[in-house]
Every structure is written in C-alpha cells, then in structure tokens.
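Session log. Operator J.P. requested a structure for one protein chain; no other inputs attached. Running the standard single-chain path with token output.
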Amino acid sequence: MQKLRQGDREAFRELVQTYRNHVYRIAYSVLHDEQEAEDAAQETFLQIYNSLSEYREQGFKTWLTRIALHKAIDLKRKRERRREQQGDVIELASRMPVQSEHILQGLLAEEQRDELRQKIKQLPDGHQTIITAFYLDGKSYGQIAAELDITEKTVESKLYRARRWMREHWKEEEW
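Structure written below.
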C-alpha cells in the first residue's frame, strides 16, 4: 500500500493482476453482461487509484469489494435509465401521426449525421476521406478506389486502419 500511495505503477499493476478476477466476478454478478462487467471493473480500479488517500489500512479486500459493487450498481442504474428514456421516446413516437414520425426520423438521422461529421473531423486526414466516402456518401469500395486511384484492397486496408484508430481513440458510445 505504501508503494501504491507513492505512485509506484508496478505496485498498482500487481494489485490489478491480483484482484481483477474478484472485481470482475462481483461486477458480473450484478450486471450479467461481460462488457459492462469489464467496464465496471476498470472503473473500480480507477476509483481505487484515485481514493488511495482515503484507505485506512484495514480490510482492503472488503473496501475493494464495496467499491466494485457500487460501480456495478451505478452502471446498472445508468443502463436502466437509458432503457426508460428510450421507452419514453418510443411511446411518444407511437402517439404521433405517421407523417410526424417520418419528420422525427429525418430530424434524428440528420442530427446523427451532423454528430458523425464532427467526429470525423477529429480523425487524421487520411482516415477522414475514406470514412466519409464509405459511411456518409455510401460509396462502394470500387467507387472509392476509382475516385482515389487506388485498388479496392487498399480501400479495405484504409477502412480497417481508420476503424482501428476510432476504436483506440474513442469510447464505443461516441461512434
């Protein structure tokens, strides 16, 4: 614990290695979802790192377990709120006349495209072109290859690298 409080990264790595399965099992028992349990476990270790000054040198595993349980419960509540909000939108949409539904869908789609355009501007230049052509313009590999004077295999490779960049730099819910 002393090494952890002094900022020793190796000590923190050992702590994570030692308790990661325990924390994951606690989170999974609450969430029943592998990805969300992994997220909760990660947030637990971040919370532990940020709260080391509050630890009182007794019952570490109990303290760790309590943090993991609270993080999992927080994620579960967040998930349930999202479902309720989606249910409210669906209920509202079901009461609207058909024409209003089309207008609402069009507005939502346009808003999503605008958000996507903003996110694409954050990509490195080489990735912006390929992502815009494929996802926003709806062009095929062949069309993109012809326009950029490259092979379809190169288009495929560039799209793969752009998607990998997005996974590494953005949270999943951001794209």
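Operator note: The mean pLDDT is 81.
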